[in-house]
Every structure is written in C-alpha cells, then in structure tokens.
Design brief:
alpha+beta, ten-stranded mixed β-sheet, two-stranded antiparallel ribbon, 385 residues
C-alpha cells in the first residue's frame, strides 16, 4: 500500500471529525468565493470598459451639466470617431424599491459605441423611429416580465412628470460580464419636453461618450478636449472610460478593502481549523508513528502520511466548496441584482479558492509532521492509547 493511499484511509478512522472538517473547509471556500465575486462585481464596470472610449463630463461634478453643443465641437477634433450623449434619467417604476439604471441617450449612434450591447436590427430600427421607444436589457425585462410592445410608465425625479414609454428592443450581452440590467431611452424626447416645461434646462447633457480611432492617443485627445473648453462656463474633465468607472469604485474603496481583508481572514480560519484537526490526529498516533519508524519507515514516509492526510482533507473541502460556490452565488445574486447587475463567479476566483485550499493543506501539516519526525522512537512507544 502506498503512503498516500494509507494517508487517505487514515482520514476515515474518525468519520465525524473528517466530515465536519471537510464541511468547514467547504463553507470557508464558499464564503471566499462570495466575497471575491462581490469585489469583482464592484469592478465589473471598469473591467468591461473599452480602451477606445472616452468620457467627458463637467469638471466640477457629474451633478452639473454641459451644453449638448459640445458634442459637435468634440466630433471635429482629430482622432475622434464619433460622440454620443447620455443623461442619467432617474425614473421610478411603480415603487422606489424597483431601482434600475435608466439613461437617456442619443438614439442615432449610442449603440454603435457599445457593440457589446447586442440589439436585433429590426428592434433598433423601431427604437430610432419612435420618440418614446426604449431598449432594455434581457435581465431587466425578465425581472419585470416585460416584452416587446409593452407600455411602461416611469415617474420622473430629475426630470419631473409622468413619462410613458414603449418597449421596442431587448438587448443581450455579448459577454457573460455584460450588464443586462439597464434601460435606454431617447434623449431627444427628454430635451423636447424640457424645452416646453423648463427651457433653462434644455440643451444640456451630463456625459458625452467619445469613440476614438487610436486608443494610444487617449491622453492626448483628452487634453485637447479639455483645453478647448478651458475657462468656459462649463469646463470639462475627459478621461478614459475605465478611469471614469473606477472613479465610482473609489467611492467605496474602504468597503472593498474591508471585504478583501475579510476574504483573507476566512482563509486564515480554515487554516486554523485544519491545523487543529491535524494536531489532534498526530497526537493520537504518536505511538503508531514510532512503530512505523521501528519497522524501517523513514521520516519521509511519516511526513508523507501526515501531509497526505492534510492535503486530502483540504482538497476534499476545496472541491466541495467550489461545487457549492456556483449555486450559492446564484442565490446571493438574486437580492444583490439591484446593486450588482453582473454577479458572475470568475475562473480566477475558483482557481484561487483551490490554490488556497492546497496551500492550507500544506501549511496545516507542517507543525504536526515536524513534531512526529522529531519525536524519538522510545518516547513514542511510551505513549499508550
């Protein structure tokens, strides 16, 4: 019988202890994946950014708007491919608890800048031909049971009033990490309404999304854009889309750091759990190891038994934890969908979970193996169970 097969059989000598240890390790791995997936979800917007897209906003804050005429001036700058306008609409559907991201965008080219938002051509044509048409993500449509042709009413907050819309398109994400929980309506409808009710607010937008030909020139083009509007009534700040998204992430940096610390504390906890189990096991088998040494087994064999058992427990817990991670994260994603539209367990998270399980198995076996090797045969034989 090989040393590692012997080690595997040793784990079954205390089924309850072994089962509880593996279950504890699995729960810790699941907790690690949930925390890491939450952190990934926080960064999802930045990770989905394209290097050929820039964002221009008011230099002071997103709260302030800019003249929509800036779009035409930016479009004439060398290196700029096209410019699309966008405003946070902030409409409420039925109740405030039904939160979802809703934007008013330029209908003629916004989706050209975002090829990852896949809309059937015939639906896009409908969107472009009707003022009150909207395009929603598949996840958002499923959430409220919407389908093409449904009439939906939003209560305005930033733009007061009751707004009636018709679902004319449902987009899907080109990737698993694409946010399918957004609502896009036409900016010209909002602007038209403002010209009639609040003329002073008409003709303004909060953000301009810019597509450039050469991503390597992004810094240069950003400076050119901002220089053009320097000392104006609405100075601008232009940055890459990734930097723009990361500015939102920075707002919750302390939370993210806290989650990171907790995720590593979880790894420390499973290390202590397994180390305690292996210490108990080694203490119980001191005389057995002494007998093995008497029969000619080397320190390498004794260490192999201990490390083999520790790794077997750790990897069983790790594999079970990974298997449970997907259904558990799917359940967690349901209540979190309003805050994290993309809640996807990444391959990297799973890989790190298994790597940590392996490392914990090795570290947990160090002290017990060292003690078993250093204990003299005579002292080991004196211990009677």
């Amino acid at each position: 019988m090989s040393v590692f097969k012997f080690a595997a059989k040793n784990t079954l000598r205390h089924p309850l202890r072994t089962g509880l240890t593996i279950l504890g390790l699995a729960i810790a791995i699941v907790s690690f994946t949930v925390i890491q997936t939450s952190i990934d979800a926080w960064h999802a917007g930045a990770e989905a950014s394209s290097p050929d897209r820039l964002v221009t906003r008011h230099a002071v804050s997103l709260v302030f708007s800019m003249p929509v005429a800036y779009a035409d001036r930016i479009a004439k700058i060398e290196g700029v491919k096209q410019v699309a306008v966008s405003c946070w609409f902030g409409g409420i559907y039925v109740d405030k608890s039904n939160f979802f991201a809703n934007f008013a965008v330029s209908h003629n080219n916004f989706f050209d800048l975002y090829p990852e938002l896949v809309v059937p051509p015939e639906q896009m044509e409908q969107f472009k031909s009707e003022r009150n048409a909207v395009i929603v993500g598949r996840k958002l449509a499923d959430r409220f049971g919407w389908k093409i042709g449904d009439q939906v009413q939003l209560a305005g907050t930033i733009y007061p009033g009751t707004w009636d819309f018709v679902i004319r398109g449902i987009y899907t994400g080109a990737k698993a990490t694409t946010d399918e929980g957004q609502w896009f309506q036409r900016w010209d409808l909002v602007d038209e309404q403002l010209r009639q009710t609040m003329p002073g607010r008409a003709g303004n937008v909060s953000t301009l999304f810019i597509q450039i030909h050469d991503p390597t020139r992004s810094a240069e083009i950003c400076k050119t854009i901002d220089d053009q509007f320097a000392n104006s009534a609405a100075e601008t700040k232009t940055e890459t889309e990734e930097a723009f998204q990361l500015s939102f992430v920075e707002m919750g940096k302390s939370i993210i750091v806290g989650l990171e610390i907790i995720s590593y504390l979880v790894i420390g906890i499973i290390l202590l759990v397994l180390a305690n189990t292996m210490a108990m096991t080694t203490r119980e088998r001191v005389s057995e190891y002494a007998v093995l040494k008497t029969l000619g087994f080397t320190s390498f064999h004794v260490a192999g038994l201990i490390f083999g058992e520790s790794l077997f427990l750790a990897l069983c817990g790790g594999v079970l934890g990974v298997a449970l991670a997907f259904p558990v994260n799917s359940l967690v994603a349901i209540p979190m969908s309003n805050f994290f539209p993309v809640f996807h367990v990444s391959t990297m998270t799973i890989t790190w979970g298994l790597v940590f399980a392996f490392v914990v198995g090795l570290v947990a076996g160090l002290f017990p193996a060292s003690k078993a090797i250093r204990t003299p045969i005579v002292d080991g034989l004196r211990i009677i169970d």
